[in-house]
Amino acid sequence: MLDLEYYDRILARALRFGGDYADVFCERRRAYAFRLQDGTIHEGTTVLTQGVGIRVVVGESAGYAYSDDLSLDALLRAAESASLIARGAPNGAQRQIDLTTMNVPPLYDQERTDHAAAARYVALLERADSAARAYDTRIVAVNAHVTDELQDVWIATSDGRFVHDHRPMIAFGVQAVATAQRERASGYVGDGGRTSIAYFDAHAPDELARDAARIAVTNVEARPAPAGEMEMVVGAGGGGVLLHEAVGHGLESDFNRRGTSLYSGRVGERVASELVTIYDDGNLPEERGSITVDDEGVPGQHKVLVENGVLRGYMQDTLNARLMGTTSTGSGRRQSFRFLPQPRMCNTYMPNGTATVEEIIASTKRGLYAKSFSGGQVEISKGDFVFMVAEGYLIENGKITTPIKNATIVGNGPDVMTKVTAVGNDSRLARRHYTCGKGGQHVPVGVGMPTVKIGSITVGGTQE
Length: 464
Hints:
With 464 residues, the protein is of the alpha+beta class. The chain folds into two domains: 118-152 and 166-223, PmbA/TldD superfamily (PmbA/TldD fold), CATH 3.30.2290.10; 228-460, no CATH class. 20% of the residues lie in helices and 41% in strands. It is built from ten helices and 24 strands. Strands 1, 2, 3, 4, 5, 6 and 7 form a seven-stranded mixed sheet that branches. Strands 10, 11, 12, 15, 21, 22 and 23 form a seven-stranded mixed sheet that branches. Strands 9-16-17-19-24 form a five-stranded mixed barrel. The longest helix is centred in the N-terminal third of the chain and has 18 residues, at 118-135.
């Protein structure tokens, strides 16, 4: 998008007034999006976004400026602004930057350079609409959407790295709404990843739509959830959002460097049941949270966060890693060129245990089976969380029985991890298109886990 010599000149100008480090993040993003509602395509958009962000780091501070004007004069002005914001000391002369192009094996298709014809996306949405409505006569509404994005980033750093990454991303989602006897409920299912529309040749939208309709019909028949302390079995795949929110954010390095996480200074200590191991992977092929390189040009990595209950490390970007005396783990991510990078999760998940799902259910006398969650929130400094259950069932005397609705779970992330009593052998990542928010920024992530049993948790319900 820019001549290579531009990056040299921008970096030199960024360090004109001093600085420990500087980088340039150049981005071009093209996206198609289509939305179906009430059997009709209500929206079809094409969006092109491009621009350059320039950062200068001095100590613990960073100056940042960006421009969507790609002329060299505009970019040099932005570089000088970033340098002045960082307030470094004048160093007298511009620094010479020698960039070396990095070649990193890609984790996703680097050859796909364009979108499919609009009719192909529309056909997927129409198939989903028909399949959901055919599932049950109680389905009264279907909403579906598909987004296909191609993002290119070029990253140049003052320590001499230059790298380009071509990132595809497709997301498809279906919401079905069911009614019965004045009750109304919905179900939502999504799929996708760093791939193309061809992914849905093998993963038909009809199946997603029928699953969304099944959840809606199940929820419209569900009875109010009971309240109180009980055992909980968390479903494989989508249950990983609990892991992401209740534990993952607390292991990001900025919170730990500032001492605002419950996990601060606890590397090497036991923080969970010995059954608990947690990974964050940036290098799983085609997964939603995967990155050939992060948004600072560092290759995506496999990170062991917790191993057999012992905290092994944090997710690091370059700034916090330098301040903490370690190295980046390829976790520096940003929403776009308009934002500074932050340490963020990629694909956070728990690997297989040894128990079967049948053994876990059979061992539960009275509990909640939370197959998936619809959202929640966590307070990082305390680890306290609240989550809403999207699809849930009672477990009674070792069997899954009645579907329930309006269930919430309340707990503390570190405390819950000490109460894990069984981990299943069915670990998988959820292919739903999760997006994580932090500091006003949103980035795509993956979550996953096997079926997990928690010995005790507080359930909020509306059963009278």
